[in-house]
Design brief:
Order of helices and strands: EHHEHEHHEEHEEHHHEEHEEEHH
Helix content: 40-55%
CATH architecture of the largest domain: 3-Layer(aba) Sandwich
CATH superfamily of the largest domain: Resolvase, N-terminal catalytic domain
Largest sheet: 5 strands, mixed
Shape: elongated
Strand order of the largest sheet: 2-1-3-4-5
CATH class of the largest domain: Alpha Beta
Distance between the termini: 69 Å
Radius of gyration: 34 Å
Number of helices: 12
Number of strands: 12
Number of domains: 4
Length: 403
């Protein structure tokens, strides 16, 4: 019994191929074919998925659809490789053919495979599947060699990390360049986080306040920021399948700053203690030499009969030998010790002093550039909102909008 009804299968492997109108061309040819063969088209399956990777969910959706019919259904495709590029689906398709449930119609190859097909036709079907698989394997080998070469010369081959943009030069060669909007903010995140004074949750809030958004426009979550802090690409390395390679693209931060952030990250990711309303000078900076724990600040206030008040701040932690006892010291005493040490520090070599001044100027310039970019975006957003309000007011005055 020959099939009188059909489904059309038009497939491409990626959205890029779809943009080339490949599916439209396939569908047009196959509709004309079905019309010439007097096949009643029940449904057209336009599939964008690889035939060699994944579970082929849309392909199986088509198979399950034709299984519902008691009469044979023709699966009409442009070529064998639009249906399969390997022998993985061969047993499934062959079983349905032998049961008389389906026929395979290959338009460009002018071939029909059905239950009564000659052995020569079935052999040609197998040969075309073999050729399709051979072509796929050869492409895979070429891609692997190309990726390996790019890794050796330090080229990034995927979507650029946040803070970078994918671009192309005048010859069409792919580039990874710094994002002028996000890069300065990410650099600032690393610099602030490396101080050890802020937890990831606090840095998430800072990133939001500074205007950092994902490439889709969303605020960064704690998990995204956690991965960002661990991204070695910013300091000149790229991780590919667990291996590290130096890349040739512009770095965003020095390696020592990246390493400092990793040390902070592995030290603690959560706020280790709760502070009073008043900020401590040494917040998150001091640990006890005896217990190894972070020192907390505790402010005491006293009100005298005269109405005057005084307050003292103590730095304290628990005594490891006696958990019920606290060890403490006046914050003023520690401040004085730090001041004494700092007062003895100086840069006496002129070359080093000049380099330090130049570095500070560069940092200041970068921050100014960042603020300029942020201000520009805010002004643009303000102008757009104002324009919308003006349009709404005009519509209201013209009576086109009700209250």
């Amino acid at each position: 019994m020959e099939a009188t009804k059909a489904v059309i299968l038009a497939r491409v492997s990626s959205p890029e191929q779809e943009e080339g109108h490949s599916i439209d061309a396939q569908r047009h040819r196959l509709q004309e074919y079905c019309s010439r063969k007097n096949l009643d088209v029940l449904k057209t399956f336009e599939i964008i998925e690889s035939s060699t990777r994944g579970d082929r969910k849309r392909f199986m959706e088509m198979i399950n659809y034709v299984r519902r019919f008691k009469e044979p259904i023709a699966i009409v495709a442009d070529k064998v490789d639009r249906v399969q590029r390997s022998f993985r689906e061969f047993p499934l398709l062959d079983d349905l053919i032998q049961k008389g449930s389906i026929e395979l119609h290959f338009y460009s190859e002018n071939t029909i495979i059905h239950k009564e097909s000659r052995s020569s036709d079935r052999t040609m079907w197998s040969m075309r599947v073999l050729l399709a698989q051979s072509y796929t394997d050869a492409m895979s080998d070429n891609i692997k060699r190309s990726l390996e070469h790019k890794r050796r010369i330090g080229e990034w081959t995927g979507p650029a990390p946040l803070g970078y943009l994918n671009d192309r030069d005048e010859f069409g060669k792919s580039l990874v360049i710094l994002d002028p909007v996000r890069a300065p903010i990410i650099q600032r995140i690393f610099e602030e986080y490396a101080t050890g004074s802020f937890t990831l949750a606090e840095m998430v809030k800072k990133a939001k306040d500074w205007g950092l958004r994902s490439k889709k426009g969303y605020c960064l979550t704690k998990s995204v920021l956690h991965r960002l802090i661990q991204q070695p690409f910013y300091c000149g390395e790229m991780e590919i399948k667990g291996e590290m390679f130096n890349h040739r693209h512009q770095t965003l931060i020095p390696r020592w700053l990246f390493q400092a952030c990793q040390e902070v990250r592995t030290g603690y990711n959560k706020k280790p203690f709760k502070y009073a309303d008043k900020e401590s000078v040494f917040r998150g900076l001091l640990t006890s030499a005896t217990s190894g724990r972070v020192v907390t600040a505790d402010t005491k206030k006293k009100k005298y009969p005269s109405g005057k008040t005084a307050e003292w701040t103590y730095l304290r932690c628990w005594n490891p030998e006696n958990p019920e006892k606290k060890m403490w010291v006046r914050e003023d005493d520690i401040v004085q010790q730090v001041e004494d040490i700092i007062s003895r520090i100086g840069i006496h070599k002129k070359e080093l002093l000049d380099d330090t001044i130049e570095y500070l100027k560069e940092i200041n310039t970068a921050k100014k550039d960042q603020h300029t970019v942020e201000l520009s975006h805010l002004k643009k957003e303000h102008t757009e909102i104002q324009a919308r309000l003006d349009r709404l007011m005009d519509l209201r005055l013209d009576g086109e909008l009700s209250k």
